[in-house]
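Shipment paperwork, digital attachment
Item: protein structure file
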Amino acid sequence: MAYRLWLLIHRLRQQPINKENRIMQRHRSTTQLFLVFAALLLTAAFVQSGFAQNAQAQAPPKYATFEYMKIEPGKGADYRKLEQEVWAPIHRERVKSRLIRSWSLWGVRYPGGVSREYDMVAVTLFDNFKDLENSYPPEVFSKAHPNMNRDEISAKTTAARKMVRTEVVAIVDSALPGAEDPRSQPGAAPTKYARFDYKKVEFGKAGEYVSTERKYYKPYWQEVVNQGAMRGWAVCGVRFPGGTDKEYGFLTVQLFDKFEQLEGTPATLGAWVKANPNVNAVEIGAKIGAISKTVRTEVLTLIDQVR
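Attachment content:
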């Protein structure tokens, strides 16, 4: 497959450029980008499956939805009660039925202020893309709340918050605690803090960006995780919404057990040298900075979780 993609690119470069050909090249370039990204996702699935087999652990989830919500003025207490008493039991039924892997609710800590676009981010993890189609069947509502109908739940929810937007992301790769690490055990306490970095990658550079993250930054973050300075890291590609004009196409997620870990520790300074000996961190930073930029960074606090 890689050879066919190379051959397609080579032939496109050899064709004379005129008005009609520019249009065709733009269309073909878009198709090429989609094929490259699809191949990367397929590779990620094999990598994740291999890791799970070697570690004798459950394979990492492959997809997630990010739901960005804005609490209505003066409805903060009502919203939190609604999530804990109404929605958390529903999510427990979804997990029990294996419709989802987990659900977590995060409060946006930074940026702050009343003018921020959203206050909460709900992250739902899925094992397969097809599971996104119908993850809220009627029976999860009736089992969780036999004396409450779905319309009543919907009315209470819309009165307390509004949905700003929803995204579907593919989890391209990750660095997590090993199977023997106490933090990876089912009864381990959940992580408390997260940092989201939203990335805008230059058109046609998605493959190079993911390759750089995998080759240099994944080993680095894995070493930081192994040292206990963070809980986990992941790079995700935004599948929907699509288009070349969207604000960002990737995001990286960092998970922490302690707030001070967001600043970094002396141990993390030596992690790069251990993970990438004889590789200049400044040069790699410049390389990835030339094809991507961080358009926004947020710090979030875990509010609730069902897994």
